[in-house]
Every structure is written in structure tokens, then in C-alpha cells.
Amino acid sequence: MNSKLQIVNSLSRKKEIFEPSVPGHVGMYVCGPTVYSDVHLGNVRTFISFDVVYRYLVHLGFKVRYVRNITDVGHLVGDIDEGEDKIAKKARLENLEPMEIVQKYANGFHDVMNIFNAIPPSIEPTATGHLIEQIEMVQRIIDNGYGYEVGGNVYFDVLKFDKDHPYGKLSGRILEDLQSGSRDLDGQSDKRNSLDFALWKKAEKGHLMRWNSPWGLGFPGWHLECSVMSTKYLGTSFDIHGGGMDLKFPHHDCEIAQSVAADGADPVRYWMHTNMLTVNGQKMSKSANNSFLPHELISGDHPLLTQGYSPMTIRFFMLQSHYASELDFSNEALQASEKGFQRLMNALEAVESLDVSKAKGTDAEENKQLNDLIDAVYDELNDDFNTAKAIARLFDLSKKINSYKEGVIDIAGVSAESLERLQKEFHAVIVHVLGLKKESGGDTKVAAGLMELILEMRKDARGRKDYDTSDKIRDVLQELNIVIKDGKEGTSWSMN
Amino acid sequence: MNSKLQIVNSLSRKKEIFEPSVPGHVGMYVCGPTVYSDVHLGNVRTFISFDVVYRYLVHLGFKVRYVRNITDVGHLVGDIDEGEDKIAKKARLENLEPMEIVQKYANGFHDVMNIFNAIPPSIEPTATGHLIEQIEMVQRIIDNGYGYEVGGNVYFDVLKFDKDHPYGKLSGRILEDLQSGSRDLDGQSDKRNSLDFALWKKAEKGHLMRWNSPWGLGFPGWHLECSVMSTKYLGTSFDIHGGGMDLKFPHHDCEIAQSVAADGADPVRYWMHTNMLTVNGQKMSKSANNSFLPHELISGDHPLLTQGYSPMTIRFFMLQSHYASELDFSNEALQASEKGFQRLMNALEAVESLDVSKAKGTDAEENKQLNDLIDAVYDELNDDFNTAKAIARLFDLSKKINSYKEGVIDIAGVSAESLERLQKEFHAVIVHVLGLKKESGGDTKVAAGLMELILEMRKDARGRKDYDTSDKIRDVLQELNIVIKDGKEGTSWSMN
User: Fold this and answer.
1) CATH topology for A278-433?
2) Of A73, A368, A399, B187, which is least packed with CB atoms within 10 Å of its CB?
């Protein structure tokens, strides 16, 4: 490959060559889920995107410490400073202890990640697991003059901070615009300014999740945990911070402000943000009634879906867009991905069957072409992890592979070394970097193939009036709980 | 059933009728693993035992809050007060951040629990997730006069406590015996008495896991977390506390002492302890070189094992002993369980195929016999969760089921209601209470059934010299990567 890994940094809005602060090591933090409901598809896309980032960095030889948190307290309904804790609310509705809600949905989240073949992070810290550290960070912010306490609440002083450091630089917000756009304090809040955000919230009476602090019983503000846990495990300034683009503001801008205010350090060197999901061109949202959950997409059990799609088809479909582009769900696109995924898996099988002993290196041009195609895959991946284009290059390689296999191009042309490189890299990129794998159902496929044969033989038997045979077939299928149905368009079968 | 649930309480050493403190609700705490290495088989047995306790309580209609912790800090090598933290030591050896060790082995633990079909607990709290609560409990113990601080360490004052409350009552240890058996303080320790145990340990320089406390930087003592997390989620006095019997002393006796000292409450109403594992009659231990890990037992990859055993066979094998008895591993016993498990699964299939419309209730004696046998299963489970005897009763029922199926006993004798009860309860106890399930290979079984049919039809076709059909069969099978082999003993097949 000719290129070095480059990342489009959301902070500089430029494509930059990636150079970790400690050569050979990468610290990466990704904002994880708030575990109060089933993980939604947008989150799945974000986590699959960063799963590939993680996998590719490891593939390139970096030692990566990958931290993805679980938000189990402090995230209020509406993502704002006032209101009920999302988990406490769900606990109230489901009549459970908040930590039972946390456990239930964290387990569900892990199951979904596992289904989509995402590698677990190196560390998966929780907000409730880092209260002492959060209290200490709040104290440092107060000590440095950027936080103030009012009646058990502690707020971040945005105006004061902005005098010394630009606030909102990640999202590109300008303080004056934010101020003119924000509503006046109506006496309901004890903030100095409506832009100020909570570092520590006083717990109302009856609040189940609360801890002692220098400011009384309370709980941490939502933005705080990520600042604390990322820097605890990765250092005050670390390499990559990822998340969905809806987190840019206020969440990530607040993270920057907190770190600068507490430790004087800009925490993140490369910010990366994944884009949103759309369905048939429209933003996916609950209110538009066009959002489906992962398990609905797999089963096809949703009015907008004409069929179900396997987890690997969905993963492949997601990777066919660049993480920073919008991703549009449609039955047509998913069905195309289903076919494309199968084609790629077939090529993976084909490449492994090519006979290296026949590769003699007799055609320098062909040999160069092959190596250029392999390089091209890496060039795309090095271009801000462009999985969409890398997959297009893998399809170019698939054509080559099929040509070798079918003898359309003489495999003798390429050298044994090049062919071995092809086999190694084609496998590595698909399996290790993109995280795609053959889906089971090998047996199901076999059963389907055998059934096709049996139904044909049943038809033959009936044609020649051999009812012994057709009865025998009926009996055996019945025993196996297989139901056959003769219809106008032929015979179909299903398993009970 | 005739009986009420009874539990042998390790504290009273008596069988007691189980009555939860809040009718209909059960709070249960089980000491979970210290995640610094692969979970060992003794732990697996403990967690499977309490999985059945949990499942049975739920089956009886209780609403159970089941808490099982993850120890991720404070557990020192040798289970004593001096020495290195188990996780920190492993982190040093593996050159990782301690929380990476925690994540790695917690993930592995969850995978193993999943393989053995253990239901995740309602809450799975971690020691590092409850530092504020631990610090507060230490403070309460100090405030009540049962703890003292020396140079950043806080110890529990065992002699002082024992004057007011018996120390060691769970294990039956007598203070005088403990004292005469313990070594003198050799000036290396700052404890008042060698029996005192650490509530909070000062962190040595370079210690990676440490937090601020009123006594300086440090970390909690190992016994503390369970007292804190059990009472936080289940109340100061809760129903059931379980663990391996090796934890009785000092761990569980210290838990009692801590709760009494901090909150004046005896924390646990029913203590339950699982017994140890032996291998061919000898205690399983690393030093005796006769211990194997769960995955070794499954694969059979260990010098002492003649074959591998499936997870459900292993689960079944474990449940064939009462949790409070020693469990002896031997190839013979495991092989017997393998057959027994299959027999039970066959009976489960058979019971579902019995035709209720044929049950007419013409034989009152037979009808009573059947219901008595069903009752007997529950009587055994109610007798301190005696899964060993309950399984024996299930085998009695299996005989009955097979007799009905084969017509040895006329099914008309029993009433439809009784037969439906049999079907419902036999399934519920095996699947929901014992947590046993058919192991995969469902598709494989179908494929095998279809192949049998196809090979027969191939033979027929050849018999009538219909080579079109036999060639067709050969081609389709080839396409499906199925190889058939005609031998002296008939035709066999295999998949490539």
C-alpha cells in the first residue's frame, strides 16, 4: 500500500495523518449506550463503525486500549439538566430497582453486540463505578474557578470558561449565538447562565440513585463521566474519541470544557463522529414511526420491512457506507447487500481453493495488476477507514479471483508470492478488519438442498404412479416435522 | 405436592421452612468470582447450584431479586490481608491495566455461564462500583467502636466485637481457638490483634487501584464489598446468602461481623453453602495436578479425561449431586450422566407425543400413582433443593412415560387432566427449574433424516436401474459437499 492512515478529525474538520502520541500504542474512547432500553440501530451503527476502527488499528499492529462506557446514571430524559434520570424513570415504570434496569439492558446490549460480531472493548467502565473520580474532577473544576455550587448543585461556568478558552469549538458553536438562541432563566433554575451545565445534581427526595459528596447527596451530571473515565484509563490527552454526531454538542464540547477546566489539557487528539440513519430517505425516528430495532430488522417483523436480514448482512450493509455518511435503509438496498455479502463470501471460499503451485509468475503485468488491487483495498481503509470503498475494491478482487478460478485468466501469470498475499490479505480484511463471517445455517442450507431433491423425486414418483415412494416420502417428512404444501406455483415446505 | 420448601441453613445447621421476610419476595445474594483468571469448575458448580435455587424460587412464584457480585479489587493473593491484589498481580504479569484484566475475565466468565445455561443475576455489582458505599460502611464501623485506623489502614477489632457479639458463629469458630492457632504479630503488622482483618488498606506506592478516602489513598478490604452490595440492594437483613463452603470462614463470618458492627443487624436469614469438587475421590487442586477448567472438560483435552462432555451433560452431572454434597468427577460417572441426560431428553420428547385424547381416567389406582410420582419430584426439590433425588424421581416418571408410549400401561387409565399435568410439570422441572435443554444439532438431525430417505431412494432407483435418478442424487449431494460411500455394511455419508 502507498498510503498512511488518515483520519478526518471532527475538531480540525481536516483529514490528518494519524500519529498516536505514544508510537505503537493507541488510546481510544467511544461513548457507549445509556442502558435504559433496547439499543437502537443508530447506536449499533456507531459501535460497528468503531469496531472496525479498532480492528483495523489492531490489524495495522497498534496495541490499542479501547474503552467504551456504560452510562448507568446521570443521563436525564431529554438529554438536559432538568428532569428525571432515564434509568430511574424506566425503573419506576417497570417497578424495578434502577440497577436491575441497568443489568437487564446492559445484558441485552452485549447480546446484540455479540450477534453483530463486535469485539468487546478492553475496558467497559460504568458511571456508577467512578463516582469518587467524578467528585474529584468536579472539585478540580471548582478549584480552578470554572465551577460553582448553589444549594447542592454544581454547575460549569460557561461564560467564565469561554473568556479563557473557546467553548463549543468542536461543534463550531459560537457563544453569542448560543446565548441569543437560549431561553432566559425564568427563575426556575439556580444557574448563573442558562448555558451553564450541571456537573453534580442534588438528589431530590426519593431519588434512588444518589451518593454522598462534598455538596450533599446527589449524582453526577451526564457529561462528566466520559471526561473522567476516558482520562482515567487513557491519560489526560489521548488519541481517538468517537461517538454519534448527535453527541458533538453539547456532550463532547462539554467534555472538552471539563478536561480543560480541570486539568488544563485538551483531552482528545482525533475526534471521530458517525452519521445518522435514514429510512427510505427520511430521518429515522420514533415519532416518524419509521424506526426499527435490531431484532426487528433481523426477523423482518416491522411494517416497513419486506423480509428479515441476517446479522452479517446488516453489518455488511452498514459497512457499505462510510461511517461519516448518512446511511439509508431500504428493502432494495438491504436485499442488494444480502446478495453482495453472499458474493463476497463465495469469493472468500474461492480464493482459498486457488492452487498456489500453479502460480508461476509468467505475466508481470497481471502480477502487478493483482498487487495494485490489493494495495487499493488498504488505500481505501487508510483513507479515514473508508469501508464503503474498500468493499468496492474487494469486489474488484472478487472478479479477479473468479477469473483465476474459472480459468478466464491464467493463474500461471501471477507469482506464488502474490497469490499467497492475495489469499492472506483478502481473508484478513474480510474476516479480521471488517469482522464479517460465514453465517451458520450451513445445516439449514444443506436441509434446503436435500429438500429440493426430495420434492423433485416425489414429483417423479407421482409422475410414474409410484405411490409407494411418494407415501414413504410423506411419512418420513412427517416424522421430521416437515410440512409440504402443493400449490399452484409448485410445492413449498416448512418446518414445524 | 405435600411439602413446603425447606432449606438447610448453614447458620443454624438445621433444616428450616423457608419463609421470606416479605411474603412473595426473595432477596438472594451469591458471592461471585474474582475476575483475575478463568473461572474454575468449583465456581461453576456453585453458580449452577444457585442458578437452580433462583430458577426454582421463580418457578414457585416468588419475585426474586438475585444479586451476584464481581470482585474487581481488594482480593489479595492468598485470601489474606497482606500481599498483592490478585488482579493487580495478573495485570503486572500480562502487562495490562488492571481494569483490562477485569474486563477480559469478566467476559470469559459470562461466556462460561452462558454455555452452561445459567440465567444472569438481576444485578451484578462490582466492588469498584461501590467505593463510596464501602467507605461509608467503614466509617460506621469506626463510629460504632469496632474499627480503628492505623497509618492509613483501617482494621476490624475482632476482640472488641466478640465481647458484644459472637464472632465466627457461622463457621463455628471459637475465638480462643482462633487465637491460640494464629501466629503472633511479629512487628510487621500494625494490627492490634492478628485476628483483626482489614476494612481499608493503604495503597502502597505504585499501586494502580486506589481511591481517596478519609484515611488517605487506598482500597477496600476484600470482605467489605459483599456486606455493602448485598445490603445496598437487598436491605440490611435479607433472605438468602450463598457461596462456596470455602468462603464460610473468614469471608462470610466477617460479613456478619461487619453488618452487625455497622448496622446492628444480622444480615442474612438463610445461609447456603455448596460443597467441594473431588476428582476420582481426591480433592481437586492445582497442586495435585488434577484440576481441569470448564473448557477442558468440554473438549476432553486433559490427561485425566478420556473424552469431552457437552455443557448440558456437565450441568446434568452436577445436578445429580445435592449441592451440599461433595461432587466427584470420574470418567465413569460423567459417561453415565451423558447416557442419563439423553434418556431424560428422550422421555421429554416422548411425553410431549402422548395423546391426551386417549386418557380417559379409567384406572383410579394408576391415576393416583402418576400424580404421586409428580408430587415426589416437588417433594425432593422442596427438601433443600435436592436436585439429585428430584432427578431420580424424574427417571421414575420417565419409565412411566415410556410405558404409556409403548402401550405397556394403557394410557386410558389416567385422566386427561393428570396427563396434561404430567406433560406440563415434566417439561417445567427439566427445562425451567433444572435449566436443561436439548443441545443443538436440530438441523443436523433433520439433515440426517433427509439423507436416510435419499439414500433409500437411491438404492430403490438403482434397483430399478433408474440411473437418471441415481445420477441426479449424486450430483445434488456433490453440490452440497456431501460425500457418500458405499461399503459392506451399507452406505454411509459425511459432509466435507
Assistant:
1) Isoleucyl-tRNA Synthetase; Domain 1 (1.10.730)
2) B187
